[in-house]
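Question (not urgent): is this output format expected?
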Amino acid sequence: MLPMTQNTSLSYRDAGVDIDAGDALVERIKPLARKTLRDGVLGGIGGFGALFEVPKRYREPLLVSGTDGVGTKLRLAFDLNRHDTVGQDLVAMSVNDILVLGAESLFFLDYFACGKLDVDTAAAVVGGIAKGCELAGCALIGGETAEMPGMYPAGEYDLAGFAVGVVEKSRVIDGKAAIVPGDVVLGLASSGAHSNGYSLVRKIIERAQPDLDARFDGERSLADVLMAPTRIYVKQVLATMEKVAIKGMAHITGGGLLENVPRVLPENTVAELQKAAWPRPRLFDWMQVEGKVAENEMHRVFNCGIGLVIVVAAADADLAMAELTAQGEAVYRIGEIRVRQGDEAQTVVL
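Got this back:
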């Protein structure tokens, strides 16, 4: 190849951006996005903006938005060359967040940034995003793929996502206004560590030096367990809400049980949780032992097996558990709400 001179005609490809690869990715994405279409979508992938009509069944619709990323779980995805599940993680982090207000997910947009676009890797990621959108019942109506030479190391990328949902104004779930002492705390099982605490997870792996491909949990390897995608609770909980009055919900993300549950509690209450009330997946026991992580730190960093917390009146607890079970959730009665004493922590795990 002849060296470039001052008179050589330069192209965007010479600068490191492959427009053809970007076009190929769009063509790969289109059928994935089509599978997520739902009522309200106007137009398709490829426009400058995406149009969405709020379903007419809402009389006083309030839009609810959420945005998030996948965090350092991406580092494991790079190291393990596994890119098909982090897209579901991305969707879950936003749709589960807006769910706690009682919102139905309407649509999702993603942002994928890399130094050099690998179409197969990007398509695997977007495939996971599309699967997450199907599970949440929301449409993947747009996004951005940014190829930025020199900004990211080879083989690495970053992800961010944005979800919009809707809730009837009269049905907004506001735990702070509704929760009272005597209410029951239910916990929905997580699928693993979800997408939180992975900086500590990676530190534990660095110390323990485990065989990530060895069988760890049934037929799954440790790598399988660590990369299990975040569970999406949207459809199951929305269906349950049609039959049971839910007072408050907390998505257990960064901050674990100890810092997320208080976000929906009135100042004068405490959620008293019983550790023995739910089975803690082996992953968390392994991480605690190998990392010598204190019990309080475990509950402050990880979900420890509970991905979503729901608060209901004591009289509704059995019906709520039955409905959630019928929707395919593993649900446990993990505690109750009581009066707060002084300035004690608002969530305690006994």
